[in-house]
Amino acid sequence: MAPLRTIVCALLLSASAAFTTVPTPITYHRSSAAHISSPLFAKEGKGGGGGAIATPATKTVTQTTTKSKTEEVTKQKKKFKPSEPEEEYEFKEAPLWLLMLIADEADEQMHVITRLTEIVEDVNDDMAAELFKAANMVGEALVGKYPKEIGEMYAEQLTRSDPIIYAECREENPDN
């Protein structure tokens, strides 16, 4: 019984080994140029440069067509003329709103100047100082005229400052 087991095991192992592929490790060896026998590398004493690069075989097909004169006469290009718009639309610009800086006794000059220059794009330090002085003298000062959304954004950003800077956005012509 033992020899039968041994024979069956040996048979199974040989069958599994026959149908199983084991990858062989690939080793790369670096050697000097004198030992390389590839035609791509130059050998010592034969001049410089490698072998020529192989060019693929290409097939060139030339097709000639002839046209008769009657065909050329019948083919005429149509010129494209864009149609004129039937109605002229009148474009109305968005109304501008006034961004007003409102004076407060608790305002610190450096804080107001810094925040005005950081938030409002077209205000520099000198203009911010003049706006602060004008607002303290009269009670409010005009920072600029902006479309409604932009003016409201500037006013909201100024009022979110800590300490708060009072500003509001008003319509330029409230009667219209």
TrEMBL record:
<keyword id="KW-0732">Signal</keyword>
<dbReference type="InterPro" id="IPR003769">
    <property type="entry name" value="ClpS_core"/>
</dbReference>
<dbReference type="GO" id="GO:0006508">
    <property type="term" value="P:proteolysis"/>
</dbReference>
<dbReference type="Pfam" id="PF02617">
    <property type="entry name" value="ClpS"/>
</dbReference>
<feature type="domain" description="Adaptor protein ClpS core">
    <location>
        <begin position="92"/>
        <end position="160"/>
    </location>
</feature>
<dbReference type="InterPro" id="IPR014719">
    <property type="entry name" value="Ribosomal_bL12_C/ClpS-like"/>
</dbReference>
<protein>
    <recommendedName>
        <fullName>Adaptor protein ClpS core domain-containing protein</fullName>
    </recommendedName>
</protein>
<feature type="region of interest" description="Disordered">
    <location>
        <begin position="64"/>
        <end position="86"/>
    </location>
</feature>
<feature type="signal peptide">
    <location>
        <begin position="1"/>
        <end position="18"/>
    </location>
</feature>
<dbReference type="GO" id="GO:0030163">
    <property type="term" value="P:protein catabolic process"/>
</dbReference>
<dbReference type="InterPro" id="IPR022935">
    <property type="entry name" value="ClpS"/>
</dbReference>
